[in-house]
Automatic annotation (TrEMBL):
SMART domains assigned to the protein according to its UniProt record, in alphabetical order: AAA (SM00382)
Membrane topology: Peripheral membrane protein
Record protein name field: Glutathione import ATP-binding protein GsiA
MF-aspect GO terms: ATP binding; ATP hydrolysis activity
Role according to the record: Part of the ABC transporter complex GsiABCD involved in glutathione import. Responsible for energy coupling to the transport system.
Source species, domain of life: Bacteria
Annotated source species: Pseudoruegeria aquimaris
Catalytic activity: glutathione(out) + ATP + H2O = glutathione(in) + ADP + phosphate + H(+)
Encoding gene (name): gsiA_1
One Pfam family linked to the record: oligo_HPY
PANTHER family reported in the protein's UniProt record: GLUTATHIONE IMPORT ATP-BINDING PROTEIN GSIA, TRANSPORT ATP-BINDING PROTEIN
NCBIfam families attached to this UniProt entry: PRK10419.1, PRK11308.1
């Protein structure tokens, strides 16, 4: 490693002009990154960790910000030093994507919805590397293969909306790596990814760093990812650096109180061993949430939801006549039961069918066949009028609250919408009901007049939960409801959901890829792979005695919040992901299970 840093940020101050006045996004931030080194910047959302990275690319200026003070000295290819804070726009265009690559957190906003994946991947290669279309196509296919996207040739012709969230994120990573940049900025690149894909992407970034001596600036709130990736760590809080040191120093001997609280709040796999019921998450700076002192544990009640042989397939259409040439087998012969007051967690990789399964149960996606019974009502047999009535008892909390809330409508009107739709309340009674819902999700009543953009991610997710609770449902399907939230906000939202479950006896189908969170909140756990449940049983059985090889690899891929227990690429033993697309007429056999212990079932291979 060279003594001279690749980038040297000194006393950086970034300001934003807002309606509420001047906001300082980063204040007096200084750090260096050497070639071949990974620097992790950690902190909660709003701590200013992304601001310093966006400043390095000079993208902060496109979001209403400005670099007020400081310098960012970047050693360019010919050995000269350039201050990025003062570089001309023309020079920055040549550096962005070529010398400095960036992986953004939200892939759907960083991919253009009207261009194919192939066009977006080849654009930078033709511009910066002066490749021909044929060379750029070959390189793009090779990049898609590197990020482990199945059938890369056919993916080149697809559009972003045709890929799952995890697939889109891998495309963004391939784009950032395309020109082999000297610095790779990763802004929460694995937040929305499941555990095995996350492990693969982290290994991929680490391999790129070693092979090309690339410097990596890794921004995250996940301390387990920091332990896996970092050489050095910078901890940020409210725009200021509170601590800097090697990864071992930060984890084993943290000096700042904020760093200690951040580490203490991390949910760790295996913490629930020997504990029969779900437990609340730890919140930063708070030992035990208040509600645990008064709320009883949710006792298993009577059978509420019964799913039998549920199958959902999506047609793949091609040609001028849009003829169906194949089917995506999203959900294949899925069966399970869920009692009132219990949580069943569905876990698996992106594209395994867990979200499709949740949507099929609510008939937001029409299943092809199977049975869904909610409290004795056959959901599959209902017409539109009957389904509308049944939906009072089943609600959904979506992954992205910003996408599921209307940006132009006040929060009070959004939470009251279900009550108005079913003519349950009006006038002052409606206002009172909404105020009570805001109290229930621990949000001030003054927020009722606000709009979604005026809230943080965690607060928006609480609004989505309040809206789901408005009709007093018996079942809530939570689809990755906390995956994009920081540790402390995630703990608050999960504790709220567990508190409401204990108080109201709600059954919850919790769809997630975060194994440590699933271990905390579940009564039952089901593992999905390629549309099928491969293992299902009580939480303790799945986590302490996993029998299916896929469950074992899923648990082994979970990063551990300890830099001395890093996992190598060899240990992770990645296998290619098979395609869920089959020709028309293909009928796979039924799912058959062996009961290996009471209530613990494993799919026969």
């Amino acid at each position: 490693m060279l003594d001279e840093p690749l980038i040297d940020i000194r006393n950086l101050r970034v300001e934003f002009d807002t309606n509420a006045g001047l906001v300082v996004g980063a204040e007096d931030v200084s750090y260096k990154i050497q070639p071949g080194e990974t620097l992790c910047v950690v902190g909660e959302s709003g701590s200013g960790k992304s601001v310093s990275a966006l400043s390095m690319m000079r993208l902060v200026e496109f979001g209403g910000g400005r670099i007020a003070e400081g310098s960012m000295l970047f050693r360019i290819g010919d050995g000269q030093t350039l201050d990025l804070a003062k570089a001309e726009p023309e020079k920055m265009r040549a550096i962005r994507g070529n010398e400095i690559g960036m992986i953004f957190q939200e892939p759907m906003t960083s991919l253009n919805p009207v261009f194919t994946i192939g066009r977006q991947l080849t654009e930078g290669l033709k511009l910066h590397k002066k490749m021909s279309q044929k060379e750029a196509n070959a390189r793009a296919i090779e990049l898609l293969r590197q990020v482990r996207i199945p059938e890369p040739e056919s993916r080149m012709k697809q559009y972003p909306h045709e890929l799952s969230g995890g697939m889109r994120q891998r495309v963004v990573i391939a784009m950032a790596m395309a020109c082999e940049p000297r610095i790779l900025i990763c802004d929460e690149p694995t937040t929305a990814l499941d555990v095995t894909i996350q492990a693969e992407i982290l290994a991929l970034i680490d391999r790129l760093k070693r092979e090309h001596n690339t410097a990596v600036l890794f921004i995250t709130h996940d301390m387990a990812v920091v332990a896996q990736m970092a050489d050095r760590v910078v901890v940020m809080y409210r725009g200021n650096m509170v601590e800097e040191g090697s990864v071992e120093e930060i984890f084993e001997n943290p000096k700042a109180d904020y760093t200690k609280a951040l580490l203490a709040a991390v949910p760790r796999l295996g913490e629930m061993k020997g504990k029969p019921a779900p437990e609340p998450m730890r919140i930063m700076g708070q030992e035990t949430p208040d509600w645990t002192k008064k709320a009883p544990k949710a006792a298993p009640g009577e059978l509420l939801l019964e799913v039998k042989n549920l199958t959902t397939r999506f047609p793949v259409k091609k040609g001028l006549m849009r003829r169906t040439v194949a089917n995506v087998h999203a959900v294949e012969d899925v069966s399970f039961r869920l009692n009132a007051g219990e949580t069943l967690s569905l876990v698996g990789e992106s594209g395994c069918g867990k979200s499709s399964c949740g949507r099929s149960i609510l008939r937001l996606v029409e299943p092809m066949s199977g049975e869904v019974r909610l409290g004795g009502t056959d959901i599959m047999a209902l017409d539109q009028k009957g389904l509308l009535k049944a939906r009072r008892d089943m609600q959904m909390v979506f992954q992205d609250p910003f996408a599921s809330l209307n940006p132009q409508v006040r929060l009070m009107d959004q939470v009251s919408e279900p009550l108005r739709n079913y003519n349950i309340a009006s006038g002052s009674e409606l206002t009172d009901r909404v105020a009570q819902l805001f109290d229930r999700v621990h949000l001030p009543r003054s927020f009722m007049k606000r709009y979604p953009h005026e809230l943080s991610g965690g607060q928006r997710q609480r609004i989505a939960i309040a809206r789901a609770l408005a009709l007093n449902p018996k079942l809530i399907v939570a689809d990755e409801a906390v995956s994009a939230l920081d540790v402390s906000v995630q703990a608050q939202v999960l504790n709220l959901m567990m508190e409401l479950q204990a108080e109201l006896g709600i059954a919850m189908l919790f769809i997630s890829h975060d194994m440590a969170v699933v271990e905390r909140v579940s009564h039952q756990t089901a593992v999905m792979y390629l549309g099928r449940i491969v293992e299902i049983g009580p939480r303790a059985a799945i986590f302490e005695d996993p029998r299916h090889s896929y469950t074992q690899s899923l648990l082994s891929a979970v990063p551990i919040a300890d830099p001395r227990q890093r996992k190598s690429e060899r240990e992770l033993n990645f296998k290619p992901i098979p395609s869920p697309i089959f020709p028309v007429g293909h009928e796979p056999g039924p799912s058959q299970y062996d009961e290996v212990s009471p209530g613990h079932f494993v799919l026969r291979s």
